[in-house]
Amino acid sequence: MQCPIDGTQLVITERNGVEIDYCPQCRGVWLDRGELDKIIERSTAYSPPQSGYDDRADHGYRKKKKRGGFLEDLFDF
Q1: What angle do CA 73, 9, 28 make, to 5 degrees?
Q2: How buried is residue 39: exposed, middle or buried, by Cβ count under 10 Å (0-12/13-18/19+)?
Q3: Sheet strands side by side (includes 18-22)
Q4: Is there a contact between 21 and 10 (Cβ–Cβ < 8 Å)?
């Protein structure tokens, strides 16, 4: 299938059981019917591990690294 934006051939990849079509040129993402529902289901079931880090005792000396969520893992090509 061709990218509707720039005409590049779309690449199909599977991430966490969901098939995703994306354009390597413009980085556009296209989903087939039902794939968005799968992503939403899995994002609500995903709970990141707790680190035990207490940022209240930090006093601004260190920055806590932001963890990515389910969707960031899913769309990281």
Answers
A1: 40
A2: buried
A3: 11-15, 18-22, 29-30
A4: yes
Give the global pTM.
Answer: 0.51
- State how far the Cα of 15 lies from the Cα of 27, in Å rounded to an integer: 16
CA of 74: how far to CAs of 22, 58, 60, 63, in Å? 12, 31, 31, 25
- Alpha carbon distance 49, 46 (integer Å): 10
pLDDT tens per residue, the chain (77 residues)? 899 999 999 999 988 888 899 999 999 999 889 998 988 888 777 666 666 655 555 555 555 555 666 666 666 65
Per the CB < 8 A criterion, the answer to whether 64 and 53 are in contact is: yes
